[in-house]
Amino acid sequence: MSFIVAIDGPAGTGKGTVTKILAKKFKLINVDTGAMYRCVALDMLNKGVKLEELDKIKEILENINIELKHENNKDLVFLNDEDVTEKIRSKEVSGFVSQVSSIKEVRLSMVGLQRKMAEGKEVIMEGRDIGTYVFPAADVKIYLDADLEERARRRFKQNKEKGINTPYVEVLENIKMRDENDKSKEIGALKLAHDAEVIDSTSMSINQVVREISSIIQKKKNEIKMQGKIYKERKENAWKKFVRKVVKVFLSALYHIAYRVKINGSVPKEGAYILCCNHINYLDAAAIVLFNKRKVKFVAKEDLFTHGILYWLGHLFDAIPIKRDMQDIEAMKRCLRVLKKGELLGIFPEGTRKGMEKNMKAKNGAAYMAIKSNVKVIPVGIHGTFKPFSKVYVNYGEPIDLSKYKNQKDKLDEATEIIMEQIVMLTKKED
Ligand code: DC
Predict the structure, then answer these.
(1) Which one is predicted more confidently, 354 or 119?
(2) Distance from CA of residue 117 to its chain's centroid?
(3) Taking the CA of residue 82 as centre, how many other CA atoms within 13 Å lie in the half-sphere pointing to its CB?
(4) Cα distances (Å, whole numbers) of residue 302 to 307, 339, 431
(5) 13 lines ligand 1 (CB under 6 A)
(6) How, if at all, do strands 197-200 and 140-145 pair?
(7) pLDDT tens for residues 37-95?
(8) What is the position in ligand 1's atom list of the atom closest to the CA of 37?
(9) Which distant-in-sequence residues (6+ apart) come within 8 Å of 195 by Cβ?
(10) Which phi and psi (to 5°) does residue 358 adopt?
(11) For residue 9, how far is its CA from the centre of ligand 1 (angstroms)?
């Protein structure tokens, strides 16, 4: 499975150093996209190709072979099988690369390569446009920034350590120019992605920056792991069936002690139906699942699955986790599979507890699936205060046939209203 960390930001923010450390720490493939543009610039310099010679540049791009390798704890850059790790950092390349990276054809070619390099891999990619253009859906997006003067001071110090004695004012001017160039590119300009985490490293040490980004990466990894656990479909087997039976007997006994449950009506013994029910309390789904002879697979918000016991019960009763703040296609497909198998699907069209009371518009997913799968909806009205020892009524209505709405997507609201009217009527029944 792929995992992408995008590190963007202007020159001199420490992106390179931080990315190297993070790549090692999280075992991610380090893709230095700046080095790739530098390779193109070096190839052009080697072959004496000028910026305006587009045909020759295209030829270079067609034949170029860039490899980023990690050997003996070192990040190495190979251009057409030659180790150019040092050469691409030369003054000539540094002075030329900014213009080279502004050429549309160069960008399209490098972006294609970058996407290919990350295919199905766990990658940390450093550059200017990774979170905005190359991988707009990256798992983690960091925008590393720092004051212009501080970045110039860092670059000046770095140069000195390498024996390069460019005056500070010149370094500052150079960085200023690169910033302007980076931000004004036609494609792939340096921009802040709306969902990126901004880290200003002006007064932070490398270790502090690494720590901050590490915790963001770790949090995302944990989230993905949790999602995997939540969405994993547990296979049905004899043991699971047995445990479910025992748990059902135990929980329904408890439920009966806490509430006087009164069930009116029932569901047909066979066939697929969608049970649409009002939602007043967390325990109302349990009233349907526990007191039904048939198995009801309920759709439940995914956050419920993050609690230990609910996670376990959710999987035991094959509840279907759904992301409520977006169109959850995966959950929808799972629901449709339940119906296709001739089973019972439970949904709260209100979408949330007491949605009707809060004047919220009912969701039309149930009507959509009923029409799409050609199954009937059974309205269910739950009535009760859920105060200890009080009465809880579960009233099943007659199946509603919505087949007349087939191929009429614009009538989904109308179909949902029909379901909701029946549910409301059933919530008033008390015998
Ligand atoms: O990060 P660096 O200094 O090695 O980058 C070299 C050049 O490439 C620099 O001028 C910015 C440009 N670049 C880019 O336009 N897009 C990227 N994703 C990475 C670098």
Answers:
(1) 119
(2) 20
(3) 11
(4) 10, 20, 35
(5) no
(6) parallel
(7) 999 999 999 999 999 999 999 999 999 999 999 888 889 999 999 999 999 999 899 88
(8) 8
(9) 131, 141
(10) -85, 10
(11) 10
Mean pLDDT of all residues in the chain? 93
Angstrom distance (rounded) from CA 263 to CA 270: 19
**93, 101, 114, 97: which is closest to 186 by C-alpha?**
101
Strands (E), 203-326: 260-264, 273-277, 296-301, 320-322
Q: Whose CA is nearest to atom 2 of ligand 1?
A: 34
Q: Are 198 and 145 in contact, with CB atoms under 8 Å apart?
A: yes
Ligand 1 pocket member 384 (CB < 6 A): no
Tell me the C-alpha distance between 288 and 172, whole Å: 70
Q: Is 379 in the pocket of ligand 1 (CB under 6 A)?
A: no
Residue with tokens 């526990």: 290
Answer whether 98 contacts ligand 1 (Cβ < 6 A).
yes
> What are the b/e assignments for 303-324, b being 16+ CB within 10 Å?
ebbeeeeebebbbebbbbbbbe
